[in-house]
Amino acid sequence: MPQRTFFYKETNGFRVTVHPVYLVAESDKDIGRYVFSYTVRIENCSRTTAQLRSREWVISDSIGEEYHVSGDGVVGQQPVLDPCDVHEYRSFCVLKSGHGTMAGFYTFRQDNDAEFVVVVPEFILTLPDEPLH
After folding, report:
1. Structural domain spans, the chain
2. Cβ(102)–Cβ(57) below 8 Å
3. 101: nearest Cα among 58, 38, 56, 41
4. Which CATH superfamily is 7-126 part of?
5. Residue 93: what are its φ and ψ, rounded to 5°?
6. What is the pTM of this model?
């Protein structure tokens, strides 16, 4: 079975697509360090302008560890997305095993101060030679 390389979900008129990649050169299996990068594309498919204010992540690995990460914006930015705008960024995470998942959401704020959530699809972090579970 081929591995999925893109994960996407649309909520509240915003489409989030994630493309994870295992970074072999940054990882060290001997010490349990598995580094994954992921590229996120956020598309405003709605008719509303909104600013990405914060993020919440749940990162899990196959040895049973779970991490919660939250903070303002994404990679130091709080982009404003007009209708049809796209914002892309790249980040990374480090796991203690070669298989895990990430999922979460972004909180956006409209011009009228109304807030809403945009879901980030759960995506799989796995070594290229490991099957999906």
Report:
1. 7-126
2. yes
3. 58
4. ApaG domain (2.60.40.1470)
5. -145, 160
6. 0.91
